[in-house]
């Protein structure tokens, strides 16, 4: 029986993780769950999965939860709650909260010797070196949930990593694929949230529309697979059937294909190194799959992808700035305080203004994240 804690159980990845677990009730025990605002859903999850402990945003939410519950469960609160919950007895922590909120709980869970199933890519974007050094020191498994990185992990299996010549990350291109800057000036929040292939949380969906999601995934791949950024390519593949590829020194390319369903990479991370069938998964039917197409990303229009490569090359706290500026710019866009194209402009401006710190400590990262966000908020929140 694997004991599991899910951070962000009420989100898109969190709910799908619980769906996967329902398929193998005899293999997994849910020890802890966390929500932020969605107490109604957390209450239902507590009734169904019977965790020992949960964490919520604050005391108000905890009181709301107590009113909803008729069973005994320990309730933790705030960012401290997320840090404390990962100390409970468990084998695996699924990190499915969004943004930098995942950083300290992930670091704490690794320090406690727990394996991690990582959906939250922001943790590696903001503090990749620190997290991976700790993974090595503690000798834990950090398993990717992100579909592209799960694909790469599968394409690497049984091969010599020294013989890899390139990682090729696929990108859907998002809802604005084929558009030019001029077309994007007045796009609405709803248009940006209309992802062609995946149903995900709002923040990652906007990141997909700007192509920052792919930039983050390049950084995530560098840390997960210990490969330099000039060997990580992005190709737009609008069908999202090939989830990523690995090219080897003999010119062979190995790809992982599946329908666009996050329950597939989630089950792979939970059951690794084996695989399992999940009820309700659609299998690919190649007699119906008419086309697999590819095109170069338009870096002129979708500047965020170039900014991510640039930040990665500079290193240090520059990727922290990339992440922090993106987090707040996306939130400003979702709240209709800025236009879509300003997301990239704000990130670029923040990177230009930053005095980079090479080899930052965790405290440096947390301070830079805070400073960048405060500066942007002051300028754009009216
Ligand atoms: N969705 C997907 O298909 C994919 C997602 N990812 C990554 O996985 C992570 C989660 O994404 P997704 O599930 O889509 O996001 P959602 O917005 O759907 O879910 C986010 C979860 O985190 C909780 N949460 C939000 N803010 C905070 C906070 N400040 N502190 C603590 N908990 C918080 C939410 O709680 P509540 O709802 O209760 O308010 C919810 O449980 C992201 O990092 C994303 O990039 C990666 C690949 C694919
Ligand atoms: C499902 C998943 O892993 C997302 O990160 C997905 O890749 C987003 O699609 P884009 O390729 O449009 O960024
Ligand atoms: Mn992805």
From TrEMBL:
Assigned EC number:
1.1.1.267
Q: Which residue numbers delimit the 1-deoxy-D-xylulose 5-phosphate reductoisomerase N-terminal domain?
A: 4-128
Sorted UniProt keywords: Isomerase, Isoprene biosynthesis, Magnesium, Manganese, Metal-binding, NADP, Oxidoreductase
Cofactor(s) this protein requires: Mg(2+); Mn(2+)
Its domain of life? Bacteria
Gene3D superfamilies, alphabetically?
A: 1.10.1740.10, NAD(P)-binding Rossmann-like Domain
The segment(s) forming the DXP reductoisomerase C-terminal domain are 257-374
List positions binding 1-deoxy-D-xylulose 5-phosphate: 121, 147-148, 172, 195, 208, 213-214, 217
Picking any one GO biological process from the record gives: isopentenyl diphosphate biosynthetic process, methylerythritol 4-phosphate pathway involved in terpenoid biosynthetic process
From the UniProt record, list the reaction(s) this protein catalyses: 2-C-methyl-D-erythritol 4-phosphate + NADP(+) = 1-deoxy-D-xylulose 5-phosphate + NADPH + H(+)
Q: Which parts of the sequence bind NADPH?
A: 10-13, 38, 120, 122, 201
Which GO terms of the molecular function aspect are on file? 1-deoxy-D-xylulose-5-phosphate reductoisomerase activity; isomerase activity; manganese ion binding; NADPH binding
Give the metabolic or biological pathway: Isoprenoid biosynthesis; isopentenyl diphosphate biosynthesis via DXP pathway; isopentenyl diphosphate from 1-deoxy-D-xylulose 5-phosphate: step 1/6
The record ties this protein, via InterPro entries, to: DXP_reductoisomerase, DXP_reductoisomerase_C, DXP_reductoisomerase_N, DXPR_C, DXPR_C_sf, NAD(P)-bd_dom_sf
Query: Which residues are involved in binding Mn(2+)?
Result: 146, 148, 217
Using the record's annotation, list all stretches that form the 1-deoxy-D-xylulose 5-phosphate reductoisomerase C-terminal domain. 142-225
Magnesium recorded as keyword: yes
What HAMAP family would the database entry show?
DXP_reductoisom (MF_00183)
The UniProt similarity line reads: Belongs to the DXR family.
Primary role: Catalyzes the NADPH-dependent rearrangement and reduction of 1-deoxy-D-xylulose-5-phosphate (DXP) to 2-C-methyl-D-erythritol 4-phosphate (MEP).
The identity of this protein, by name, is 1-deoxy-D-xylulose 5-phosphate reductoisomerase
Name the gene for this chain.
Answer: dxr
């Amino acid at each position: 029986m694997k004991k599991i804690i899910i951070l962000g159980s009420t989100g898109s990845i969190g709910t799908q993780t619980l769906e996967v677990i329902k398929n193998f009730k005899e293999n997994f025990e849910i020890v802890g769950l966390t929500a932020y605002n969605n107490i109604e859903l957390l209450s239902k999850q507590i009734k169904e999965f019977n965790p020992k402990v949960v964490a919520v945003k604050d005391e108000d939410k905890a009181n709301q939860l107590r009113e909803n519950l008729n069973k005994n469960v320990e309730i933790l609160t705030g960012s401290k709650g997320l840090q404390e919950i990962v100390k409970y007895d468990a084998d695996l922590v699924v990190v499915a909260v969004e943004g930098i909120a995942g950083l300290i709980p992930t670091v704490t869970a690794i320090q406690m010797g727990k394996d991690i199933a990582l959906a939250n890519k922001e943790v590696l974007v903001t503090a990749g070196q620190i997290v991976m050094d700790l993974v090595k020191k503690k000798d834990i498994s950090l398993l990717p949930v992100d579909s592209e990185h799960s694909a790469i992990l599968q394409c690497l299996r049984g091969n010599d990593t020294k013989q890899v010549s390139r990682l090729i990350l696929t990108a859907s291109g998002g809802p604005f694929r084929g558009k030019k800057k001029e077309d994007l000036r007045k796009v609405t929040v709803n248009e940006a949230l209309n992802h062609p292939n995946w149903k995900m949380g709002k923040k990652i969906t906007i990141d997909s529309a700007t192509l920052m999601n792919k930039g983050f995934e390049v950084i995530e791949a560098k840390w997960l697979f210990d490969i330099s950024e000039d060997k990580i390519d992005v190709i737009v593949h609008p069908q999202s059937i090939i989830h990523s590829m690995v090219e080897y020194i003999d010119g062979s390319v190995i790809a992982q294909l599946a329908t666009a369903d996050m329950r597939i990479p989630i089950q792979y991370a939970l059951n690794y190194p084996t695989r399992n069938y999940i009820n309700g998964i659609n299998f690919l039917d190649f007699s119906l799959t008419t086309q697999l197409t590819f095109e170069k990303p338009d870096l002129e229009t979708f500047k965020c992808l170039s900014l991510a490569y640039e930040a990665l090359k500079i290193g240090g706290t520059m990727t922290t700035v990339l992440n922090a500026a993106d987090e707040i710019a996306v939130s400003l866009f979702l709240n209709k305080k800025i236009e879509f194209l300003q997301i990239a402009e704000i990130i670029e401006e923040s990177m230009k203004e930053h005095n980079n710190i090479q080899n930052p400590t965790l405290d440096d990262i947390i301070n830079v994240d805070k400073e960048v966000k405060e500066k942007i908020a002051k300028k754009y929140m009216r």
